[in-house]
Amino acid sequence: LTFAKLFLKEDGQPLVLEPWQVEHILQPVFYDLDEQGRRRKNLALVLIPRKNGKSTLSALVAAYGLLADGEPDVEIYSTAGSRDQARIIFNQTAKAIARSPILNAEVRIYKDAIERRDGNGLYRVLSSDGPLQHGLNAHMVLWDEVWVHGSSYELWESLTHSPARKQPLHFCVSYTGFAPYKGNLLFDLFTRGQAGTDPGMYFFWSTGPSANLASWITPAYLAQQRSRLPAHIYSRLHECAWPTGTGSFLTPEDIEIATDIDRLQTHQGDNNFAYFASLDLGLKRDSTGIAVAHNEKGIIVVDHIKRFTAPKGGEVRVEEVESYLLELIKAFNIRSLSFDPWQSASLRQRLGSRGVPVEEFTFSGSNWQQLTECLLSLFKDRRIRIPRNDELVKELHQVRV
Protein backbone atom coordinates (compact mmCIF):
# COMPACT_ATOMS: atom_id res chain seq x y z
CA LEU A 1 0.00 0.00 0.00
CA THR A 2 2.95 2.33 0.66
CA PHE A 3 4.44 1.34 -2.70
CA ALA A 4 1.27 2.57 -4.47
CA LYS A 5 2.20 6.13 -3.49
CA LEU A 6 5.23 5.85 -5.79
CA PHE A 7 3.11 4.56 -8.67
CA LEU A 8 2.20 7.68 -10.64
CA LYS A 9 -0.81 8.14 -12.90
CA GLU A 10 -0.94 10.13 -16.15
CA ASP A 11 -1.56 13.37 -14.27
CA GLY A 12 1.58 12.80 -12.19
CA GLN A 13 -0.39 12.08 -9.02
CA PRO A 14 0.07 8.89 -6.96
CA LEU A 15 -2.33 6.05 -7.55
CA VAL A 16 -5.15 6.21 -5.00
CA LEU A 17 -6.50 2.76 -4.28
CA GLU A 18 -10.21 2.40 -3.71
CA PRO A 19 -11.33 0.76 -0.44
CA TRP A 20 -12.72 -2.30 -2.21
CA GLN A 21 -9.39 -2.90 -4.00
CA VAL A 22 -7.59 -2.90 -0.66
CA GLU A 23 -10.17 -4.86 1.32
CA HIS A 24 -11.12 -7.51 -1.24
CA ILE A 25 -7.90 -7.99 -3.21
CA LEU A 26 -4.63 -6.58 -1.90
CA GLN A 27 -4.98 -7.25 1.83
CA PRO A 28 -6.11 -10.89 1.47
CA VAL A 29 -3.30 -11.65 -0.98
CA PHE A 30 -0.36 -9.61 0.32
CA TYR A 31 -1.07 -9.26 4.06
CA ASP A 32 -1.97 -12.86 4.93
CA LEU A 33 1.49 -14.05 6.02
CA ASP A 34 2.86 -17.18 7.71
CA GLU A 35 5.26 -17.35 10.67
CA GLN A 36 8.20 -16.62 8.36
CA GLY A 37 6.54 -13.51 6.96
CA ARG A 38 5.79 -15.05 3.59
CA ARG A 39 2.50 -14.96 1.71
CA ARG A 40 0.18 -17.86 2.35
CA LYS A 41 -1.50 -17.42 -1.05
CA ASN A 42 0.36 -18.25 -4.23
CA LEU A 43 -2.70 -18.11 -6.50
CA ALA A 44 -5.25 -15.30 -6.66
CA LEU A 45 -8.30 -15.38 -8.91
CA VAL A 46 -10.21 -12.10 -9.03
CA LEU A 47 -13.37 -11.97 -11.15
CA ILE A 48 -14.76 -8.45 -11.59
CA PRO A 49 -16.71 -6.77 -14.40
CA ARG A 50 -15.17 -4.98 -17.33
CA LYS A 51 -13.70 -1.47 -16.88
CA ASN A 52 -13.26 -1.85 -13.11
CA GLY A 53 -9.52 -1.14 -13.22
CA LYS A 54 -8.18 -4.67 -13.71
CA SER A 55 -5.17 -3.60 -15.80
CA THR A 56 -4.11 -0.76 -13.48
CA LEU A 57 -4.28 -3.00 -10.42
CA SER A 58 -2.29 -5.73 -12.19
CA ALA A 59 0.29 -3.16 -13.29
CA LEU A 60 0.75 -2.07 -9.67
CA VAL A 61 1.23 -5.70 -8.60
CA ALA A 62 3.78 -6.25 -11.37
CA ALA A 63 5.82 -3.19 -10.37
CA TYR A 64 5.69 -4.21 -6.71
CA GLY A 65 6.80 -7.74 -7.56
CA LEU A 66 9.73 -6.44 -9.57
CA LEU A 67 11.00 -3.80 -7.15
CA ALA A 68 9.71 -4.38 -3.63
CA ASP A 69 8.82 -8.01 -2.99
CA GLY A 70 12.21 -9.03 -1.62
CA GLU A 71 12.63 -12.02 -3.92
CA PRO A 72 16.13 -12.70 -5.35
CA ASP A 73 16.55 -12.95 -9.14
CA VAL A 74 13.02 -11.78 -9.78
CA GLU A 75 11.21 -12.95 -12.91
CA ILE A 76 7.84 -11.26 -13.53
CA TYR A 77 5.73 -12.09 -16.59
CA SER A 78 2.56 -10.72 -18.13
CA THR A 79 0.52 -13.11 -20.19
CA ALA A 80 -2.85 -13.12 -21.90
CA GLY A 81 -4.52 -14.70 -24.91
CA SER A 82 -2.30 -12.65 -27.23
CA ARG A 83 0.96 -10.79 -26.92
CA ASP A 84 -0.80 -7.49 -27.64
CA GLN A 85 -3.28 -8.14 -24.84
CA ALA A 86 -0.45 -8.98 -22.43
CA ARG A 87 1.29 -5.74 -23.35
CA ILE A 88 -1.61 -3.70 -21.92
CA ILE A 89 -0.51 -4.43 -18.34
CA PHE A 90 3.17 -4.17 -19.28
CA ASN A 91 2.71 -0.77 -20.94
CA GLN A 92 0.79 0.61 -17.98
CA THR A 93 3.53 -0.60 -15.65
CA ALA A 94 6.30 0.86 -17.80
CA LYS A 95 4.61 4.28 -18.07
CA ALA A 96 3.85 4.50 -14.35
CA ILE A 97 7.46 3.64 -13.48
CA ALA A 98 8.81 6.10 -16.04
CA ARG A 99 6.73 8.88 -14.47
CA SER A 100 8.14 8.18 -11.00
CA PRO A 101 11.71 9.50 -10.48
CA ILE A 102 12.23 7.10 -7.55
CA LEU A 103 11.10 3.97 -9.41
CA ASN A 104 12.59 4.95 -12.75
CA ALA A 105 16.04 5.26 -11.17
CA GLU A 106 15.90 1.55 -10.33
CA VAL A 107 15.22 0.15 -13.82
CA ARG A 108 15.95 0.21 -17.52
CA ILE A 109 12.82 0.15 -19.68
CA TYR A 110 12.85 -1.56 -23.07
CA LYS A 111 10.12 -2.34 -25.61
CA ASP A 112 9.29 -5.78 -24.19
CA ALA A 113 11.15 -5.84 -20.89
CA ILE A 114 11.90 -3.85 -17.75
CA GLU A 115 15.19 -4.75 -16.09
CA ARG A 116 16.41 -3.82 -12.65
CA ARG A 117 19.64 -1.83 -12.78
CA ASP A 118 21.15 -4.00 -10.07
CA GLY A 119 20.71 -7.05 -12.31
CA ASN A 120 18.44 -8.71 -9.75
CA GLY A 121 15.34 -9.13 -11.89
CA LEU A 122 13.28 -8.46 -14.97
CA TYR A 123 9.69 -8.12 -16.08
CA ARG A 124 8.61 -8.99 -19.61
CA VAL A 125 5.69 -9.96 -21.80
CA LEU A 126 5.06 -13.55 -22.86
CA SER A 127 3.24 -14.84 -25.89
CA SER A 128 0.51 -17.43 -25.43
CA ASP A 129 2.68 -20.18 -26.94
CA GLY A 130 2.89 -22.53 -23.94
CA PRO A 131 5.53 -25.05 -25.10
CA LEU A 132 8.06 -22.27 -25.71
CA GLN A 133 7.78 -21.00 -22.13
CA HIS A 134 8.94 -24.14 -20.29
CA GLY A 135 12.07 -23.63 -18.23
CA LEU A 136 11.19 -20.17 -16.95
CA ASN A 137 11.58 -19.62 -13.21
CA ALA A 138 8.68 -17.24 -12.66
CA HIS A 139 8.36 -15.43 -9.36
CA MET A 140 5.13 -13.70 -10.31
CA VAL A 141 2.81 -14.10 -13.31
CA LEU A 142 0.08 -11.60 -14.19
CA TRP A 143 -2.77 -13.32 -16.04
CA ASP A 144 -5.10 -10.96 -17.91
CA GLU A 145 -8.49 -12.24 -19.14
CA VAL A 146 -7.91 -15.91 -18.34
CA TRP A 147 -11.09 -16.87 -20.19
CA VAL A 148 -9.46 -16.47 -23.61
CA HIS A 149 -7.26 -19.53 -22.98
CA GLY A 150 -10.32 -21.76 -23.27
CA SER A 151 -9.52 -25.41 -22.63
CA SER A 152 -5.78 -24.98 -23.23
CA TYR A 153 -3.63 -25.64 -20.19
CA GLU A 154 -0.31 -25.42 -22.05
CA LEU A 155 0.76 -21.98 -20.89
CA TRP A 156 -0.58 -22.56 -17.37
CA GLU A 157 1.43 -25.78 -17.08
CA SER A 158 4.59 -24.22 -18.47
CA LEU A 159 4.50 -21.48 -15.80
CA THR A 160 3.95 -23.78 -12.83
CA HIS A 161 5.55 -22.46 -9.62
CA SER A 162 9.11 -23.48 -8.94
CA PRO A 163 9.74 -24.98 -5.47
CA ALA A 164 12.86 -22.81 -5.34
CA ARG A 165 10.74 -19.65 -5.11
CA LYS A 166 10.06 -18.37 -1.59
CA GLN A 167 6.67 -16.80 -2.28
CA PRO A 168 5.59 -17.13 -5.90
CA LEU A 169 2.27 -15.74 -7.07
CA HIS A 170 -0.10 -16.23 -9.99
CA PHE A 171 -2.28 -13.11 -10.03
CA CYS A 172 -5.30 -13.66 -12.28
CA VAL A 173 -7.82 -10.90 -12.99
CA SER A 174 -10.63 -11.46 -15.46
CA TYR A 175 -14.31 -11.39 -16.10
CA THR A 176 -16.23 -14.59 -16.72
CA GLY A 177 -15.93 -16.61 -19.91
CA PHE A 178 -18.28 -18.24 -22.39
CA ALA A 179 -17.66 -21.83 -21.27
CA PRO A 180 -18.90 -22.82 -17.79
CA TYR A 181 -17.85 -26.44 -18.01
CA LYS A 182 -15.16 -28.72 -16.65
CA GLY A 183 -11.95 -28.68 -18.65
CA ASN A 184 -12.08 -24.94 -19.34
CA LEU A 185 -9.11 -23.31 -17.57
CA LEU A 186 -10.97 -20.35 -16.07
CA PHE A 187 -14.01 -22.37 -15.05
CA ASP A 188 -11.82 -25.00 -13.40
CA LEU A 189 -10.07 -22.27 -11.38
CA PHE A 190 -13.46 -20.72 -10.58
CA THR A 191 -14.83 -24.05 -9.36
CA ARG A 192 -11.77 -24.61 -7.18
CA GLY A 193 -12.10 -21.12 -5.73
CA GLN A 194 -15.77 -21.56 -4.93
CA ALA A 195 -15.14 -24.92 -3.28
CA GLY A 196 -12.48 -23.39 -1.02
CA THR A 197 -10.46 -26.61 -1.03
CA ASP A 198 -7.13 -25.01 -2.00
CA PRO A 199 -5.53 -23.30 1.04
CA GLY A 200 -3.00 -21.55 -1.20
CA MET A 201 -5.68 -19.91 -3.34
CA TYR A 202 -7.49 -16.62 -2.80
CA PHE A 203 -10.80 -16.21 -4.66
CA PHE A 204 -12.94 -13.11 -5.10
CA TRP A 205 -15.99 -12.87 -7.37
CA SER A 206 -18.07 -9.72 -7.70
CA THR A 207 -21.23 -10.56 -9.62
CA GLY A 208 -24.80 -9.42 -10.12
CA PRO A 209 -26.42 -6.00 -10.69
CA SER A 210 -24.19 -4.45 -7.99
CA ALA A 211 -21.00 -6.10 -9.23
CA ASN A 212 -19.35 -2.87 -10.40
CA LEU A 213 -17.38 -1.68 -7.38
CA ALA A 214 -15.32 1.07 -9.04
CA SER A 215 -16.45 4.61 -8.27
CA TRP A 216 -16.09 5.67 -11.91
CA ILE A 217 -18.73 3.17 -13.16
CA THR A 218 -21.90 5.26 -13.25
CA PRO A 219 -25.55 4.24 -13.69
CA ALA A 220 -25.59 6.23 -16.94
CA TYR A 221 -22.64 4.24 -18.33
CA LEU A 222 -24.28 0.92 -17.41
CA ALA A 223 -27.58 2.03 -18.92
CA GLN A 224 -25.81 2.87 -22.16
CA GLN A 225 -24.05 -0.50 -22.24
CA ARG A 226 -27.30 -2.32 -21.47
CA SER A 227 -28.98 -0.62 -24.44
CA ARG A 228 -26.16 -1.54 -26.82
CA LEU A 229 -25.45 -5.14 -25.85
CA PRO A 230 -27.50 -8.32 -25.99
CA ALA A 231 -28.67 -9.23 -22.48
CA HIS A 232 -26.43 -12.29 -22.15
CA ILE A 233 -23.35 -10.35 -23.23
CA TYR A 234 -24.15 -7.42 -20.91
CA SER A 235 -24.60 -9.88 -18.05
CA ARG A 236 -21.20 -11.43 -18.68
CA LEU A 237 -19.21 -8.21 -19.21
CA HIS A 238 -20.88 -5.88 -16.72
CA GLU A 239 -22.35 -8.23 -14.13
CA CYS A 240 -19.53 -10.79 -14.32
CA ALA A 241 -22.06 -13.63 -14.62
CA TRP A 242 -21.48 -16.97 -16.29
CA PRO A 243 -23.77 -17.53 -19.29
CA THR A 244 -26.66 -19.87 -18.56
CA GLY A 245 -27.42 -20.63 -22.19
CA THR A 246 -27.04 -19.28 -25.70
CA GLY A 247 -28.58 -16.21 -27.23
CA SER A 248 -28.65 -14.21 -30.44
CA PHE A 249 -25.45 -12.31 -31.06
CA LEU A 250 -27.24 -9.51 -32.94
CA THR A 251 -30.78 -8.20 -32.70
CA PRO A 252 -33.00 -7.98 -35.79
CA GLU A 253 -32.73 -4.19 -35.47
CA ASP A 254 -28.90 -4.36 -35.59
CA ILE A 255 -29.04 -6.30 -38.84
CA GLU A 256 -31.81 -4.20 -40.38
CA ILE A 257 -29.99 -0.92 -39.74
CA ALA A 258 -26.73 -2.33 -41.18
CA THR A 259 -28.42 -3.65 -44.35
CA ASP A 260 -28.52 -1.28 -47.28
CA ILE A 261 -31.66 -2.53 -49.01
CA ASP A 262 -31.17 -0.18 -51.96
CA ARG A 263 -27.72 -1.46 -52.85
CA LEU A 264 -26.76 -4.73 -54.43
CA GLN A 265 -23.20 -5.93 -54.04
CA THR A 266 -20.76 -4.37 -56.46
CA HIS A 267 -18.47 -6.12 -58.92
CA GLN A 268 -16.16 -3.21 -59.68
CA GLY A 269 -14.20 -1.02 -57.29
CA ASP A 270 -13.98 2.75 -57.06
CA ASN A 271 -10.46 4.07 -57.57
CA ASN A 272 -10.98 6.50 -54.68
CA PHE A 273 -10.98 3.66 -52.15
CA ALA A 274 -8.59 0.96 -50.99
CA TYR A 275 -10.26 -2.44 -50.63
CA PHE A 276 -9.54 -5.36 -48.34
CA ALA A 277 -10.47 -8.94 -49.10
CA SER A 278 -10.72 -11.95 -46.83
CA LEU A 279 -11.07 -15.65 -47.50
CA ASP A 280 -12.36 -18.44 -45.27
CA LEU A 281 -11.62 -21.67 -47.10
CA GLY A 282 -13.81 -24.67 -46.30
CA LEU A 283 -13.49 -27.57 -48.68
CA LYS A 284 -15.77 -30.43 -47.57
CA ARG A 285 -18.01 -30.04 -44.53
CA ASP A 286 -17.96 -26.24 -44.56
CA SER A 287 -18.47 -23.67 -47.29
CA THR A 288 -15.92 -21.20 -48.58
CA GLY A 289 -16.56 -17.50 -48.13
CA ILE A 290 -14.99 -14.43 -49.75
CA ALA A 291 -15.65 -10.84 -48.66
CA VAL A 292 -14.44 -7.49 -50.03
CA ALA A 293 -14.85 -4.30 -47.99
CA HIS A 294 -13.55 -0.77 -47.64
CA ASN A 295 -13.46 1.93 -44.97
CA GLU A 296 -15.50 5.01 -45.87
CA LYS A 297 -15.12 7.78 -43.29
CA GLY A 298 -15.11 5.33 -40.41
CA ILE A 299 -17.90 3.16 -41.81
CA ILE A 300 -16.99 -0.36 -42.91
CA VAL A 301 -18.76 -0.99 -46.22
CA VAL A 302 -19.03 -4.60 -47.37
CA ASP A 303 -18.93 -4.43 -51.15
CA HIS A 304 -18.92 -8.02 -52.30
CA ILE A 305 -19.77 -11.43 -50.83
CA LYS A 306 -19.25 -14.79 -52.51
CA ARG A 307 -19.96 -18.25 -51.15
CA PHE A 308 -18.82 -21.60 -52.57
CA THR A 309 -20.61 -24.70 -51.28
CA ALA A 310 -19.27 -28.21 -51.74
CA PRO A 311 -21.52 -30.58 -53.69
CA LYS A 312 -22.85 -33.59 -51.83
CA GLY A 313 -20.04 -36.07 -51.42
CA GLY A 314 -17.55 -33.69 -53.02
CA GLU A 315 -15.54 -30.64 -52.09
CA VAL A 316 -15.04 -27.04 -53.11
CA ARG A 317 -12.60 -26.78 -56.01
CA VAL A 318 -9.67 -24.63 -54.92
CA GLU A 319 -8.83 -23.66 -58.51
CA GLU A 320 -12.34 -22.22 -58.89
CA VAL A 321 -11.88 -20.15 -55.73
CA GLU A 322 -8.45 -19.02 -56.91
CA SER A 323 -9.79 -17.94 -60.31
CA TYR A 324 -12.59 -15.96 -58.68
CA LEU A 325 -10.12 -14.25 -56.31
CA LEU A 326 -7.91 -13.19 -59.19
CA GLU A 327 -10.89 -11.65 -60.99
CA LEU A 328 -11.80 -9.72 -57.83
CA ILE A 329 -8.26 -8.45 -57.46
CA LYS A 330 -8.45 -7.08 -61.00
CA ALA A 331 -11.85 -5.49 -60.40
CA PHE A 332 -11.01 -3.88 -57.04
CA ASN A 333 -7.97 -2.03 -55.74
CA ILE A 334 -7.21 -4.81 -53.23
CA ARG A 335 -4.76 -3.60 -50.59
CA SER A 336 -4.46 -7.04 -48.95
CA LEU A 337 -6.04 -10.47 -48.89
CA SER A 338 -6.34 -12.11 -45.47
CA PHE A 339 -6.78 -15.82 -44.88
CA ASP A 340 -5.54 -18.65 -42.71
CA PRO A 341 -2.52 -20.17 -44.53
CA TRP A 342 -3.15 -23.49 -42.77
CA GLN A 343 -6.22 -23.92 -44.94
CA SER A 344 -4.14 -24.02 -48.11
CA ALA A 345 -0.42 -23.33 -48.11
CA SER A 346 -0.21 -24.02 -51.85
CA LEU A 347 -2.87 -21.41 -52.60
CA ARG A 348 -0.93 -18.93 -50.50
CA GLN A 349 2.21 -19.64 -52.51
CA ARG A 350 0.49 -19.37 -55.89
CA LEU A 351 -1.20 -16.09 -55.02
CA GLY A 352 2.08 -14.73 -53.68
CA SER A 353 3.89 -15.65 -56.89
CA ARG A 354 1.30 -13.61 -58.82
CA GLY A 355 2.03 -10.56 -56.68
CA VAL A 356 -1.16 -10.77 -54.62
CA PRO A 357 -0.57 -9.07 -51.22
CA VAL A 358 -1.51 -11.93 -48.88
CA GLU A 359 -1.78 -11.27 -45.14
CA GLU A 360 -1.76 -14.41 -42.99
CA PHE A 361 -4.38 -14.69 -40.26
CA THR A 362 -4.33 -17.73 -38.03
CA PHE A 363 -7.49 -18.36 -36.03
CA SER A 364 -6.84 -18.93 -32.32
CA GLY A 365 -8.61 -18.69 -28.99
CA SER A 366 -6.97 -15.34 -28.33
CA ASN A 367 -8.04 -13.51 -31.47
CA TRP A 368 -11.59 -14.85 -31.24
CA GLN A 369 -12.03 -12.26 -28.49
CA GLN A 370 -10.82 -9.50 -30.78
CA LEU A 371 -12.93 -10.70 -33.70
CA THR A 372 -16.05 -11.04 -31.58
CA GLU A 373 -15.77 -7.64 -29.91
CA CYS A 374 -14.88 -5.90 -33.19
CA LEU A 375 -17.85 -7.40 -35.04
CA LEU A 376 -20.23 -6.63 -32.21
CA SER A 377 -19.08 -3.02 -31.88
CA LEU A 378 -19.38 -2.43 -35.64
CA PHE A 379 -23.06 -3.40 -35.54
CA LYS A 380 -23.92 -1.81 -32.18
CA ASP A 381 -22.20 1.48 -33.05
CA ARG A 382 -23.81 1.50 -36.52
CA ARG A 383 -20.45 1.51 -38.29
CA ILE A 384 -21.02 -1.26 -40.84
CA ARG A 385 -23.07 -1.46 -44.04
CA ILE A 386 -23.81 -4.73 -45.78
CA PRO A 387 -25.41 -5.20 -49.21
CA ARG A 388 -28.83 -6.71 -49.82
CA ASN A 389 -27.92 -10.39 -49.62
CA ASP A 390 -30.60 -12.73 -48.29
CA GLU A 391 -28.13 -15.51 -47.54
CA LEU A 392 -25.86 -13.25 -45.51
CA VAL A 393 -28.73 -11.68 -43.58
CA LYS A 394 -30.15 -15.12 -42.76
CA GLU A 395 -26.79 -16.27 -41.45
CA LEU A 396 -26.36 -13.16 -39.29
CA HIS A 397 -29.73 -13.87 -37.66
CA GLN A 398 -28.50 -17.37 -36.81
CA VAL A 399 -25.25 -16.34 -35.08
CA ARG A 400 -25.30 -17.47 -31.44
CA VAL A 401 -23.00 -17.02 -28.50
In terms of per-residue confidence, which ranges show pLDDT below 50 for 5 or more consecutive residues?
none
Beta strand count = 15
Mean pLDDT: 88
**Major sheet, described briefly?**
8 strands, mixed
Helix content: 25-40%
Succession of helices and strands: HEHEHHEEEEHEHEHHHEEEEHEHEHEH
Which terms summarize this structure?
401 residues; alpha/beta; 7-stranded mixed beta sheet
Helix/strand layout:
Blueprint: H1 19-30, E1 43-47, H2 54-67, E2 74-79, H3 83-99, H4 101-104, E3 107-109, E4 113-116, E5 121-125, E6 140-144, H5 154-158, E7 169-174, H6 185-195, E8 201-205, H7 219-228, H8 231-239, H9 252-258, E9 259-260, E10 275-280, E11 288-296, E12 299-308, H10 318-331, E13 334-339, H11 345-353, E14 358-360, H12 365-380, E15 384-387, H13 390-398
Parallel strand pairs: 1-7, 1-8, 2-5, 2-6, 6-7, 9-15, 10-13, 12-15, 13-14
Antiparallel strand pairs: 3-4, 4-5, 10-11, 11-12
What does this structure look like?
The protein has helices at residues 19-30, 54-67, 83-99, 101-104, 154-158, 185-195, 219-228, 231-239, 252-258, 318-331, 345-353, 365-380, 390-398, and strands at 43-47, 74-79, 107-109, 113-116, 121-125, 140-144, 169-174, 201-205, 259-260, 275-280, 288-296, 299-308, 334-339, 358-360, 384-387. The chain is of the alpha/beta class. The longest helix is centred in the N-terminal third of the chain and has 17 residues, at 83-99.
State the gist of this model.
The chain is α/β, with parallel strands linked by helices and 401 residues long. It has helices at 19-30, 54-67, 83-99, 101-104, 154-158, 185-195, 219-228, 231-239, 252-258, 318-331, 345-353, 365-380, 390-398; strands at residues 43-47, 74-79, 107-109, 113-116, 121-125, 140-144, 169-174, 201-205, 259-260, 275-280, 288-296, 299-308, 334-339, 358-360, 384-387. The two termini are 40 Å apart.
